Structure prediction request, 268 residues.
Amino acid sequence: MTRQFHKMHGLGNDFVVFDARAEPLTVTPALARALGDRKTGVGFDQLIVLTPSPAADLRMDIWNADGGMAEACGNASRCVVALTGAQTIETEGGVIEGAAIGAEVEVAMGEPRFDWNQIPLADAMDTRPLPLAWDELASPDAVNVGNPHLCFFVQDSDAIPLEKLGPQIEHDPAFPERINVNVASVEPDGSLKLRTWERGAGLTLACGTGACATGVAAIRRRLATSPVTVRTHGGNLMISWAPGEPVRMRGAATHVFTGTIDLDSLPA
Ligand SMILES: N[C@@H](CCC[C@H](N)C(=O)O)C(=O)O
Prediction:
């Protein structure tokens, strides 16, 4: 079965998007992994499947490159708004609102959650900060913005061996649903420099929900004021938040090409 797909990215965090609103598409973990393989498939950080929704303009299901699923994806949300013109998107993590603003897209990702069982953590404990450490990474804030994040504030985020510590923390038994790992440093101009180890995808050039969670954590810690610029290796995002409100993110959404693929040529 040959299907059309869109290759898109938000600041280098890249996606394959299938619009399955008119023609259903069954995705399995094996198919997601095969499509995500950068040598033999199409390659992506996340696979996005759009279907009809009774609660919003459309529904977006998110598959990580490892074949697991995620409840939210900030950069893909902006891409889906840009691709379809949707103003509301149902995800497993909640309904996202979005709108084009000039050449960029702004999305409201919902209200962040901070309780230990909302992250979720395996055991009850403070989440601001979490009394845990992994080598030089200690005392992160835990924030759920639809999906689970840890946010560490460090002197220089580029100096942290995230390729070593990221997988260790992602798979720590403290996090029953695993976790996304963000390391950020506060820059002299008040912006945040961010790197993210993504659950199920590893190091990515940018993580939209990571920027939201880290912006929120920095504002709560009074390390930053809203709106705050979050600088990733793929580019900048503007994050706005106040307690009791949804976290908003503004940034680029890029369509790279439209292609077709014979799904029968890949493992089911
Ligand atoms: N790239 C994303 C986040 C994708 C999901 C994440 N890896 C998870 O498993 O929660 C973003 O832009 O937010």
